Sequence to fold (208 residues):
Amino acid sequence: MLKIHFNMSSKDNRGGKRPGAGRPKGSSKMYAFRADKDMAEFIDGQDNKTKFIKDCVKKEISFRSLGDIIPAHNIKPISLPYFEIKLVAGFPIPLNNDELAQEIELLSLLCPHPDSSYLIRVTGDSMIEAGINDGDLLIVDKSNRSPSTKQVAVCELNGEYTVKRVMEKGSFYWLIPANPAYSPIQVMDGDEFNVWGVVTYIIHKPLC
Fold:
């Protein structure tokens, strides 16, 4: 059992309670959880276990601010009919012949690496010119952390998460939005910066 102490003051009732004595009552709580062998060894290797766990929780809260997050391997597989035809915006082509259709497994098509892929619902409009609108679902592949300048990536900057393109200029990285209303963000010396994954597909409803 691994116990984490979150700023809890100890109680000592010797001599009775004196008015105005002691620390003000706070709202902090004690939490405890079980960790398997590998996790326990990793946590034990940290210089400050409490700070490390707090930082992990803070990053998770910040990451959740991107929107809803769903691991791809939690999605139920679904197959849909697929027609191997050339579709043009001209005269209509009949698609009522089931013999022309083949089954295609949608999850495998959209998530070639399901164990490292997540679906994230976007909040915000900083990437609208990249085809990403507020409320869209992004499929993000964590196995790719080296995006090209044309790819859109989920990035972590100083504990905050954002969706941007990544560009290297000189000795600095820049996070580039796809909306002229937003300014590029320069990654400065001393900043904590990581690429969390690359967007592989964007799912949104057509404009009505």
